[in-house]
């Protein structure tokens, strides 16, 4: 299990998304749990991004909800963590 690190931009995007879609809380929580356990779970449809987001990864929460993240090394613990960078609809994050 890899720890999740929430960037300020992800926190803002999450608040904004939940204001528009309050019923998505359970789906997002389940996706984050699954992401921490196995980032490459088939249920998440994890894939590398290209273009201006090259180097980042994305996974699906629901039909039109994506989480953008990266694998980074935590300088304090020297372990790899998942840095959550953005969340939103396909159009919003890409």
How would you describe this structure in keywords?
single chain; 32% helix; five-stranded mixed sheet; 31% strand; 94 residues; YaeB-like fold; 3 helices; alpha+beta
**Adjacency order of strands in the biggest sheet:** 1-5-4-3-2
Give the % helix. 25-40%
* CATH architectural arrangement: 2-Layer Sandwich
Number of helices: 3
Terminus-to-terminus distance: 27 Å
Corresponding CATH superfamily = RelE-like
CATH class: Alpha Beta
Query: Which residues form runs of ≥5 with pLDDT under 50?
Result: none
Notes on the structure:
By secondary structure, this protein is an alpha+beta fold. It has one domain (4-93): 2-Layer Sandwich (YaeB-like fold). The protein has helices at 8-20, 25-37, 90-93, and strands spanning 4-6, 47-48, 57-62, 65-73, 80-88. A hairpin with an 8-residue loop joins strand 2 and strand 3 (57-62). The longest helix has 13 residues, at 8-20.
How do the helices and strands line up, and which of them pair or pack?
Blueprint: E1 4-6, H1 8-20, H2 25-37, E2 47-48, E3 57-62, E4 65-73, E5 80-88, H3 90-93
Parallel strand pairs: 1-5
Antiparallel strand pairs: 2-3, 3-4, 4-5
């Amino acid at each position: 299990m890899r720890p999740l690190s929430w960037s300020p931009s992800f926190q803002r995007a999450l608040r904004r998304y939940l204001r528009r879609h309050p019923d998505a809380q359970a789906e997002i929580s389940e996706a984050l749990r699954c992401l921490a356990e196995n980032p490459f779970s088939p249920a998440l449809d994890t894939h590398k991004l290209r273009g201006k987001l090259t180097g980042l990864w994305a996974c699906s929460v629901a039909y039109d909800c994506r989480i953008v993240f990266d694998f980074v090394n935590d300088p304090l613990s020297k372990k790899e963590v998942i840095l959550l960078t953005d969340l939103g609809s396909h159009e919003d994050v890409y």
